[in-house]
Amino acid sequence: MTFIQVLTTIFEISMAVALFWCFFHEDRLIAFERKLLACIRRRKLKVVHTSYKNPHIVRQ
Question: In whole angstroms, what is the distance from residue 19 CA to residue 22 CA?
């Protein structure tokens, strides 16, 4: 087997295992997808966390 065939086989086996795992843990997969999308949206929109207090801004 060539190196490309080995990588393809490993990838196919990992996808089959992931698919099998997703059948039984769909709720965890959905939670992960939502967390991932929220992270991507936050970076895309450059959302600033409100809990961060900038010492240079003085509010009265």
Answer: 5
- 3-state secondary structure (DSSP) of residue 48: coil
Whole-angstrom distance, CA of residue 58 vs CA of residue 56: 6
Tokens standing for 21?
A: 């795992």
Verdict on whether the full-model pTM lies above 0.85: no
Tokens 């970076």 belong to 43
Domain ranges of the chain: 3-45
Q: What is the pLDDT of residues 8-33, one digit of tens each?
A: 999 999 999 989 988 888 888 888 88
Instruction: Copy the structure tokens of residue 23.
Output: 């059948």
Token reading at 41: 């949206």
